[in-house]
Amino acid sequence: MNFTTLFENATVAGIPLLIFVLALVQWVKGFGLSGNYAKAVSMVIGLSLGVGYQLTLSMPSDFTGWFTTVVFGLALGLGASGVYDVVNK
């Protein structure tokens, strides 16, 4: 399974995970968070939900599994913070 397919199939209760992360970031920004703080929060949200999602699929038993899990979470967080940057410009 490649990374693109993994993001396409990443849904929770039928909701695409990336859309959910972006929605949470927008919700947090509603409290007045902006700039680097908003980017940091989007990374934390993406990382947390990405790792959580991967753990629901299977518990990693070796370095490769944990590395893949963390990279997925980071990619989700980077995607959310990247969209935040694009929207703000």
Helices, by number, come to 4
Order of helices and strands: HEEHHH
Pairing-aware structural class of the strands and helices?
Answer: mainly alpha
Q: Helix content range of the residues, please?
A: over 70%
Strand order of the largest sheet: 1-2
> Low-confidence stretches at least 5 residues in length (pLDDT < 50)?
none
Shape: globular
Summarize the structure in words.
This protein is mainly alpha-helical and 89 residues long. The chain has one domain (3-88). Helix content is 78%, strand content 4%. It contains 4 helices and 2 strands; from the N terminus they run αββααα. The chain has helices spanning 3-9, 17-29, 35-57, 63-88; strands at residues 11-12, 15-16. It has a two-stranded antiparallel ribbon with strand order 1-2. The longest helix has 26 residues, at 63-88. It is globular. The model has no long low-confidence stretch (mean pLDDT 80).
Please outline the helices and strands.
Blueprint: H1 3-9, E1 11-12, E2 15-16, H2 17-29, H3 35-57, H4 63-88
Antiparallel strand pairs: 1-2
Helix pairs in contact: 2-3, 2-4, 3-4
Features:
4% strand; 89 residues; globular; mainly alpha; 2 strands; two-stranded antiparallel ribbon
